[in-house]
């Protein structure tokens, strides 16, 4: 009689959990089904693998080494199966911060899908400075590099941030071409007033005790307000390159802050073919 491999999973769960009932719950079968599988395995070994006691079951001492070996083997098999699944699947999960997703990824995504009709893309929100292993994504597009081993970071944009405003705001307010004029304009803030305080300090403009103006929780809301003519915003000029090239926003000063920071595309060091194709494609989109 050959080894009943189908019973090994039931034995491993029962040994690890010290319970036929809990093993059944984990494997989504009945207590009786686990008991039957264990009995079948015991017949093959010609010995009891568990000690039946009034309060439950206990792994027989002679079976402990076998149970440990089986558990570690199943873990390795599971890990290898996941790797094979990653190598063969055609779905890519891309985590992307909203500011890049709305300007660069989503508008161009149909081009990638037309070139790679066998690939399915799932786009999910990512938080700024989030790391690849935290997201479960295949590709991460975010602010800041990932320092963990086994990942590759491709720099996309500098975060150099400068004051911008829409033509309609400048038509209403007049020319704004000096830091002191910017300081007295209607300032729009992204999450906090700290960035404007940093910019004004770098520009040599005396700071007021409290910076006025609306604060927007999301950068896309800030950019929309700026384009609508509500005031002057601090925007990463490379990130907003298209709005600037289209004339929706005008850069008001060469003074920049946050130039030491960058946005990155991050993936594993040895990605599957479809992920490599996506990374190559997206880098070409932003060039």
List keywords for this structure.
single chain; 287 residues; alpha/beta; Arc Repressor Mutant, subunit A; D-Maltodextrin-Binding Protein, domain 2; 3 domains; five-stranded mixed beta sheet; 12 helices; 46% helix; elongated; DNA-binding transcription factor activity; sequence-specific DNA binding; WH_DNA-bd_sf
Distance between the termini: 65 Å
In CATH terms, the superfamily of the largest domain is Periplasmic binding protein-like II
Number of domains: 3
CATH structural architecture of the largest domain: 3-Layer(aba) Sandwich
Main beta sheet strand tally, sense and closure: 5 strands, mixed
What does the average pLDDT come to? 92
Radius of gyration: 29 Å
Residue ranges: pLDDT <50 for 5 or more in a row?
none
The number of distinct helices, counting runs of at least 4 residues, comes to 12
The fold-level CATH name of the largest domain is D-Maltodextrin-Binding Protein, domain 2
What's the number of extended β-strand segments? 12
| SS-derived structural category | alpha/beta
**How are strands sequenced across the largest beta sheet?**
4-3-5-12-6
Shape: elongated
Proportion of residues in β-strands: 15-25%
Share of residues in helices: 40-55%
């Amino acid at each position: 009689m050959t080894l009943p491999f189908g019973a090994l999973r039931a034995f491993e769960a029962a040994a690890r959990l010290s319970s036929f009932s809990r093993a059944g719950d984990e494997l989504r079968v009945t207590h009786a089904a686990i008991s039957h599988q264990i009995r079948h395995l015991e017949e093959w070994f010609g010995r009891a693998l568990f000690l039946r006691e009034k309060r439950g079951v206990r792994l027989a001492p002679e079976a402990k080494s076998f149970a440990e070996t089986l558990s570690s083997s199943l873990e390795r098999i599971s890990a290898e199966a996941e790797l094979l699944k990653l190598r063969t699947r055609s779905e890519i999960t891309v985590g992307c911060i909203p500011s890049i997703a709305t300007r660069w990824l989503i508008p161009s995504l149909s081009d990638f899908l037309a070139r790679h009709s066998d690939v399915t893309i799932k786009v999910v929100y990512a938080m700024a400075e989030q790391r690849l292993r935290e997201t479960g994504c295949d590709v991460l597009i975010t602010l800041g590099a990932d320092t963990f081993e086994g990942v590759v970071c491709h720099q996309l944009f500098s975060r150099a941030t400068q004051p911008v405003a829409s033509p309609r705001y400048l038509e209403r307010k007049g020319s704004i071409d000096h830091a002191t004029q910017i300081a007295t304009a209607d300032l729009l803030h992204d999450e906090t007033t700290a960035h404007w305080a940093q910019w004004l300090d770098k520009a040599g403009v005396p700071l007021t005790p409290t910076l006025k103006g609306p604060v927007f929780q999301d950068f896309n809301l800030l950019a929309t307000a700026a384009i609508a003519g509500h005031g002057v915003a601090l925007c990463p000029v490379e990130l907003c390159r298209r709005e600037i090239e289209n004339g929706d926003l005008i850069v008001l000063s060469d003074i920049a802050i946050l130039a030491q920071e960058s946005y990155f595309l991050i993936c594993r060091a040895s990605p599957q073919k479809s992920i490599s194709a996506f990374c190559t494609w997206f880098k070409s989109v932003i060039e």
